[in-house]
Amino acid sequence: xxxxxxxxxxxYQQIAAVIRERIRDGTYPPQRAIxxxxxxxxxxxxxxxxxxAAIHVLNEEGLTRTVRGKGTYVIGKSAx
Amino acid sequence: xxxxxxxxxxxYQQIAAVIRERIRDGTYPPQRAIxxxxxxxxxxxxxxxxxxAAIHVLNEEGLTRTVRGKGTYVIGKSAx
DNA sequence: GGAAATTTGTTCGTATGTATA
DNA sequence: TTATACATACGAACAAATTTC
Lengths: 80, 80
Prior knowledge:
2 copies of one chain form a homodimer. By secondary structure, chain A is mainly alpha-helical. The first copy, chain A, has 3 helices and 2 strands, in the order αααββ. The first copy, chain A, has helices spanning 11-24, 37-44, 48-61; strands at residues 64-67, 71-74. Chain A has a two-stranded antiparallel ribbon with strand order 1-2. In chain A, strand 1 and strand 2 (71-74) form a beta hairpin. Chain A is globular, with a radius of gyration of 12 Å. The first copy, chain A, starts with 10 loop residues before the first helix and ends in a 6-residue tail after the last strand. The chains hardly touch. The structure holds a DNA duplex.
């Protein structure tokens, strides 16, 4: 999947939207970690700061939770 | 302590004056780091650029010294 | 237990664009 | 035009937690 990063919105908002969509469609399943910050820097071709800004948005929304030294995990239905 | 940031002077000059005063009265002791740029953005309710402009003034005066990745340190008497 | 690699956390350095006075 | 101020974005250094060997 390609990401355009055009349009009027800030890049970090657009990246947050992409990740949000991947969480909703199951590409990034609950309880699992999303790709690391360096990996997302590569995929989107942006700096780590920008990736972190995007993740910050999702954490604020309660969609994800970041743990130092581990990664950023998708919040959601466990199993039941 | 609250800081008003009114008056005719530029905001960054006023912030520099506040920090300068805190160095003089010992609130920010020698050899120690003053609060980080993000922290001061929060305290004063200004952008990082403005905080950096204030710190630049103090660095120019020789009151402080900024080190990348670490912080801004108060110059001054060590112990003796 | 130690060393190295991975990953996130924090902080400063720099540049660009926009808006205001 | 210049000075001030904010938001955004990339780059780099340093720090801490985790994992793996």
